[in-house]
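Consider a concrete sample entry:
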Amino acid sequence: MANGSTVAGMEIVRSDNMIRRLRIAKGLTQRTLARRLDLSKAQVSRVETGTRRPSVEVLNRLLVALDASHRQRSIALAELANSVSCTSCAS
């Protein structure tokens, strides 16, 4: 599921792809977005490509800066929460 897939006819968009789409829709470069949030361009790139999972704080800052809807924020934060492995839960 690199950019998204469909389930029961509904598109599932990963938060990394969502952030990229929102950034492009706002006409921002990765560098400009990074500067606004005091992040490195590399950090923004890694989040967008899905090579690094951002902290909740960084993800929320990105979503707010990009004027993500409440629904988009909820999806992205839920995806992040679901991707965190619980090492103490392993049997």
